[in-house]
Amino acid sequence: MGCFFSRRRKPAQGGQLPQQAGAGQDAATGEQKAPQYSWDLRAKVDPKEYTFSGLKNETVGRLPGKVAGQQFVIQDCENCKIYIFDHSATITIDDCVNCQIFLGPIKGSVFFRDCKDCKCVVACQQFRTRDCKKLEVFLCCATQPIIESSTGMKFGCFQYYYPELALQFKDAGLSIFNNTWSNIHDFTPVSGENNWGLLPETAVVQDYVPLPSSEELKAVRISTDATKSIIPITRGRRQKNSDESCLAVFFAGDYTTANARKLIDEMTSKGFQLVQTKEVLMKAEDAHRVFQQSASEFIPLLEKGPVVALEFNGDGAVEQCQSTINEVFSGTKVFVSESKASASQDVDNFYNFADMQMGM
To answer: DSSP letters of 308-330?
Structure first.
């Protein structure tokens, strides 16, 4: 027979047991009060505050700060406009029809089940659908999105802004540079059919998920202007316009995000296209594989934190990227492709490494 041991509470400093809050006699009745422990004092979560269920023809939402990392459930809604302007742990959306949905950054997974004719804007770590029809999604997803037993699915790149959104991405542990929105894995492909595709490049978010009209939600200062989007707009898997790409890599520091954004603005304003972005930690051996002969120059910078890589595409991308970096970032160490010939290898080396790192 095994032995059973009861766990003893360790005395706190000074040999005293932890205090029980509120134990003792009730002054009015003289009766002994039940002891109250610190875990009893935590705020109780009311599931109803984190659920939208059985709604029809309504506009509902949660303002920034109102979800604060909790789980959320949306179910059995029809013809509704639903806005979650906050970060959450996970969100499930079940049996919703003809709804327009905005979901702020989700630390874990978002799971759509048995939904149809919905238009959505979603940012998450993991995206999954099952038994869905005709969902149109502007997506930011850190890992490969998965669809299962779903048809008529269309995807575009997340583009949205409101002042609290950048901090919500941070609170959800999501990088604005890790977005695999177009790299869809169909778990249940059908021979000769395509269950998913990409939204038109000209698609405008507001035409799919309009800005909220209710007084309460209008307080959120939203912009769907692509140039203001918290997430950089990338081409993803769309056909490239040119056979010339260029890789630029920024190293961790106080201004990494700002510098990467500045380069994106400079290059896109000159007509070059941002294909993909990635934020990832690198080790010395990774640097040798990616940066090759110039690796030793960059290895000391890797200890400070993750790198941010950008791929630009367009005729003359390498020359323009080099000249912009020399003019605008003269005091900053940046890796940039040396020539058109080496650039495609740079891009392949970096993103093959990054995909392995992220388990793609």
So the answer is: EEEEEESTTHHHHHHHHHHHH-T
Residues 227 and 161: beta-carbon distance below 8 Å = no
Which one, of 304, 291, 297, lies nearest residue 333 by Cα? 297
Query: If pLDDT is split at 50, 70 and 90, which confidence band does 339 have?
Result: very high
Q: Is 126 annotated as a binding residue?
A: yes
Q: Is 108 annotated as a binding-site member?
A: yes
Q: Is 109 annotated as a binding residue?
A: yes
- Distance set, CA 136 to CA 1, 239, 324, 346 (Å): 60, 20, 37, 33
Shared domain for 199 and 253, answered yes or no, is: no
**Which of the listed residues 227, 253, 286 is the one where a domain comes to its end?**
227
* Residue range 72-109, pLDDT digits in tens: 999 999 999 999 999 999 999 999 999 999 999 999 99
127 labelled ligand-binding: yes
Task: Determine whether the annotation assigns residue 61 to a binding site.
Answer: no
Q: Is residue 331 part of a domain?
A: yes
Residue 145 maps to which CATH number? 2.160.20.70
Query: Is 156 among the annotated ligand-binding positions?
Result: no
pLDDT at 343: 93
Domain harbouring 272, CATH code: 3.30.70.141
